[in-house]
């Protein structure tokens, strides 16, 4: 079963950078299965105050650096 999701352009570009010959489903599955990523995604989709948003940005930056290494 296929689903359509809407993301901003900047979010779309990130997996596009590493996509290569793989599908977006494969990329997302790989990202979620990495240790800690599912928790990060769950946190990111919740409601946060300004301080929590800044902390999340820092955590996401670390995750992004791990993906690029």
UniProtKB/TrEMBL annotation:
| UniProt cross-references to InterPro entries, sorted A to Z | Put_antitoxin (IPR003847)
What keyword terms does UniProt attach to this protein? Answer: Toxin-antitoxin system
Q: Name one Pfam family in it.
A: VAPB_antitox
Instruction: Write down what this protein is called.
Output: Putative antitoxin VapB18
Q: Which gene encodes it?
A: vapB
């Amino acid at each position: 079963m296929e689903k359509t999701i809407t993301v901003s352009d900047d979010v779309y570009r990130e997996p596009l950078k590493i996509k290569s010959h793989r599908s977006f489903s494969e990329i997302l599955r790989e990202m979620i299965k990495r240790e800690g990523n599912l928790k990060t995604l769950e946190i990111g989709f919740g409601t946060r105050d300004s301080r929590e948003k800044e902390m999340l940005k820092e955590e996401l930056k670390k995750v992004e650096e791990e993906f690029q290494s």
